[in-house]
Amino acid sequence: MLQPHHRLAILLHDGLTGAGGKTGISLLRYSELPIVAVIDQSSVGQSLADLVGIGRDIPIVASVADALAFQPDVLAIGIAPSGGALPDPWKQEIQTAVAAGLSVVNGLHTPMASDPLFKIVKADQWIWDVRREPAGLTIGQGRARSLPCRRVLAVGTDMSVGKMSTCLELHRVCRERGLRSRFLATGQTGLMLGEDGIPLDAVRIDFAAGAVEQLVIKYGQDHDILFVEGQGSLMHPGSTATLPLIRGSQPTHLVLVHRAGQAHIRDLPDFPIPPLPEAIRVYETVAGAGGAFAPVKVAAIALNTFHLPEAAAKAAIEQAHQETGLPCTDVIRFGAEAIADVLIQ
Model-level pTM greater than 0.90? Predict the structure, then answer.
């Protein structure tokens, strides 16, 4: 749907400083499309560099109506609230965009293309509901284990800790080193970035591992390394995506992603996050069972230190390295080379 000439406005109300804005922030960090406005009523006039560390000079405005002054032709919904539902206050904003002739990229679970609230007014206008189950799915059969390529799966100690960013940064480094590398999207944000993949949380659970398997097999014969975007966490009581990813991709390597200092599942204080060595043991055990007990190791730790000053971030990285004996870095802040080294050596 999205083409290089499209000019994006990103709907991100409260998402630049809140927990639900990872889709929009990832578009700001990684999309090559021109982004002409960010819509966030709580951050109007502020700097993206100051708020989220992204050095793009894009105006932050209060509403879709204000964003129209910058001549966007696509509105991308950049917030992914829990459950993926469309909050009522946003509906008027989206109606304003559609009435002005903008197309819409919708990464929420709530479909919009068939909703009479959002009536298309121009012949070349469209609504892309990203979370749609692909056709032709089957159950998983463990076929990816026979592929000759390395298959790296990012796994996390919680949701929304940086699994997609870790894979994208590692993919970039491997491409720069001349490897035939591919990033495989498994969520709406990666698909909105133009990567091939599947919206895994829109796939019926019986076919989830099979959907991942089909995607990996599609690219496994003619690539050296595949980076499979992680979803969810085995430590989160509401997560269902991690097991199908393990079973479908049959990973050769795992990279554990953790937010430095986080002691419990976000918003669930009764669910502690285990120490990193214990989390590693859990993931390696489950991955081995999912691959008919083939050995699968956590190769490195990707530590999210965005919330820490630089000195504290470096100390946290060193502590994680000492605690696990594994390479550890913040791939966005300090680069992904140290983890790439261990994956391709």
Answer: yes
Phi first, then psi, for residue 323 (nearest 5°) are -70, -35
Backbone angles phi, psi at 255, to 5 degrees: -120, 120
Burial level of 3, CB count in 10 A (0-12/13-18/19+)?
exposed
Q: Which helix (H) or strand (E) holds 318?
A: helix 310-324
Buried b (16+ CB within 10 A) or exposed e, 152-169: bbbbbbbbbbbbbbbbbb
- Smallest Cα–Cα separation from 277: which of 308, 301, 302? 301
pLDDT digits (tens, 9 = 90+) for 238-261: 999 999 999 999 999 999 999 999
pLDDT digits (tens, 9 = 90+) for 21-58: 889 999 999 999 999 999 999 999 999 999 998 999 99
Of 294, 293, 292, 253, nearest in space to 141 by CA: 292
Q: How many helices (H) and strands (E) does the chain have?
A: 11, 14
Residue 58 — φ and ψ, nearest 5°?
Answer: -120, 130
Q: Point out which residues pair with 300 in neighbouring strands.
A: 255
The DSSP element (H or E) to which 32 belongs, if any, is: none
